[in-house]
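Input record (one chain):
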Amino acid sequence: MGSYIGAVDLGTTSNRFIIFDQKGRIVGLDQKEHEQIFPKPGWVEHDPMEIWRNTQAVIRGALGKSGIKSSDLAAIGITNQRETAVVWDKHTGRPFYNAIVWQCTRTDTICNDLIAEGGQDRFREQTGLPIATYFSGPKIKWILDNVPEARRAADKGDALFGTIETWMIWWLTGGPHRGAHVTDVTNASRTLMMNLKTLAWDADILKTLGIPPQMLPRIVPSVDRETWGHTLLDGPLKATVPVCGALGDQQAALVGQTCFAVGEAKNTYGTGCFLLLNTGHEPVASRHGLLTTLGYQVSGEKPVYCLEGSIAIAGALVQWFRDNLNLIEQAPEIEQLALSVADNGGAYIVPAFSGLFAPYWRSDARGAIVGLTRFVNKGHLARAVLEANAFQTRDIVEAMNKDSGVDLTRLKVDGGMVGNNLLMQFQSDILDVPVIRPVVTETTALGAAYAAGMAVGYWASMDDLRQNWSVDQTWEPSMAAEEREKAYRRWKKAVERTFDWV
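The corresponding structure, as predicted from the sequence alone:
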């Protein structure tokens, strides 16, 4: 068996290939950003062919930089931006339309029509999800309704749908030449089309959306001991390596953080912010605006479910502060700017750029900066940007505590923003629990590597993975209770100001 595991990490803004050793340490890495396409306000697209080209480039790049041969890889796992939808021609691999990204709000009319007929929760019992522009099903419907060629091909059985991991697995294992057309349970659970109990596509929902079942991938476990396929000799790896593990990015981070026990939770601070709580083998229905979703499934075992709180805009708010307002040149500079003042000066920023996700689910909300006085300067705004992430996380933790009946006692964190000590301390203060950052913060790619490695026996058990996890830093709460609650009350007031804008 090979000495290493490769993970393809298909993020919202970039693709990476990361190579891990037995201890879960990074031994090779390459990364490439792809274009963000904004055809209209609220619309977000990616070019699926660019994502495939960039993925080939980073695989070659990581192998080249590390000097590791592709034959040294025991397996490849995939993790991906979830909900983003691609529809393509199964004979040529050509997409009928750009990928419609999870943040895109173009399906609001489709969603509003579905809600008008049966309420926002009409599919919640089957899928664990409210009807929202976030999920893939309405995106597929939009493509089929607006691209006549795609509709014709879908009806004839010549079109395939996939989220980004499905698209990549198909290409890596042969593409038009017998590529595997599969999606793992975690990604399938984000389409608004999979039944949580049966782990199968829901025929009634497909009918309602007008989506032909033959275009959908086969649903498989996240850790699949039956390999889906092998990379091709003439592909980017120039070797036949099994492809057998896949997880949506947030579930991958849950696995990478080894949150295998009921009640364990992690929060990932990326483009968006995603808090997942392991609820065990039974799906827990949310009454407070959270999503019931698949955590992971090992082949031959019962699936593990989660409650999830999804925040649309987290790190993206720092990018906006940098690129749209030009108040900083590099994202990490925001911490120094925020440290130039003692507090937020009474200013709050609610980043409802494309509506609000959990626990509000308000597509009519738009971003707001409130509490402005002549006193407020760019340092206060920088602090308000960072605090918005922590306040949004508190909104979700409040809902989770109510839904699960279990109070969160500590929070494991990962993602691009956890190097920001000011944010981590404020997060601990506003939640009143310890916040823990692990040594390896690339937990999303690590989770995908774990899924593939467990599938081929590179790691024998969950216990092996737990031993790899170690603490880098812990932040303890140090804010007075009165101050904490006053700040949070003001945040709630600010959020209400964003409603009913559209």
